[in-house]
Amino acid sequence: MHRVPAPLLALTAMVSVQLGAAIAKTHFDEVGAVGAATLRLVIGAVVLALVVRPRVRHWTRAPWTGAVGLGLALGGMNVFIYLAFASIPIGVAVTIEFLGPLALSLVHTRRWRDALWAALALAGVVLLGVGPSAVTAVGGVVWAVLAAACWAGYIVMNRRVGAAIPGVDGLAVSMVVAMLVSLPAGLGAAVDGVVRHPVLLVVFGAVAVLSSVLPYALEMAALRRMPTRVFGVLQSLGPAIAALAGLVVLAEGLTVTETVALACVTAASVGVTVSARRRRG
User: Fold this and answer.
1) What phi and psi values does residue 269 have, to the nearest 5 degrees?
2) Residue spans of alpha helices (H) in the chain
3) How far is CA 146 from the centre of its chain?
4) Number of Cβ atoms within 10 Å of the Cβ of 37
């Protein structure tokens, strides 16, 4: 994995997580949004813990604090964004969720050109906020904004855990914490859905791998080799990928306004990425 460029790892993670989200949404009727998030997190945590078998016996306070913080951000991000998916299209929800990485990129920027790219991405998000999906489903927008706050915390804590704990031991512990975050609200719906439809265990097993185990491991590897600011803005490709997944898997079309908003966000991402590459050159 060390030979794979860090941006490619981040891109693969985004495709995987949005495909998994679209598949999960097709089963919201059986388990509900929070139940779906709970199934994804429980299966992902169990699989990762069994595969990694994290060695935590000699951890000091700092690794534990980082892993727990990452788990809280991860759990909140998953639950809130699934609640948003229940009422607004995936592409719209993920674009609003990008407020988190966008704010992070603005805090860390030191060049006026990067600030302009971030402003273009912000314009896309604002444009999306006045679109029909946002107007008719205010609750979904609120959930997406909460997911955005958790996403910013996830990026910061993921980099910290990746630097402090070797391998993916920290991620495995964080997944268990995220699972515990979702259990109080989603356990009942998840259990009821699985009892009535046992095949959901297989479906959400695949979703857990696509949306949790694989992308989080890839993102942690990527964050070890790229600045947090660059990673945060690169994540703006997520809305376009989410919109494509929503269209292909769920037949969720976007309006002209929403498409223009996604184009603004994607253009900003490309601009910042190219700018960062030129500086390294």
Assistant:
1) -60, -45
2) 6-25, 28-52, 61-85, 90-97, 99-108, 112-129, 132-136, 138-164, 169-196, 200-208, 214-223, 228-234, 237-250, 256-280
3) 12
4) 33
At residue 96, φ and ψ (nearest 5 deg) are -65, -40
| Amino acid letter for position 176 | V
- CA 55 from centroid of its chain's CA atoms: 26
What is the pLDDT tens value at each position of the chain, 281 positions in all?
667 888 888 889 989 989 999 999 999 999 999 999 999 999 989 988 888 888 888 888 888 999 999 999 999 999 999 999 998 889 888 888 877 877 776 676 667 777 787 788 778 877 876 666 666 678 888 999 999 999 899 888 988 887 778 777 888 899 999 999 999 999 999 999 999 999 999 999 999 889 877 887 888 788 788 776 667 667 767 888 899 999 999 988 888 888 888 888 778 777 766 665 555 54
CA dist 61 to 37, 56, 58, 167, 170, Å?
29, 11, 10, 18, 13
**Residue 168 tokens, joined:** 């993916």
Which residues, other chains included, contact 126 with Cβ-Cβ below 8 Å and sequence gap of 6+? Answer: none
Three-state helix/strand/coil letters over 93-148: HHHHHCHHHHHHHHHHCCCHHHHHHHHHHHHHHHHHHCCHHHHHCHHHHHHHHHHH
Q: Which residue has the tokens 């955005």?
A: 148
Q: How many C-alpha atoms does 88 have within 13 Å on its Cβ side?
A: 31
The predicted model scores a pTM of: 0.85
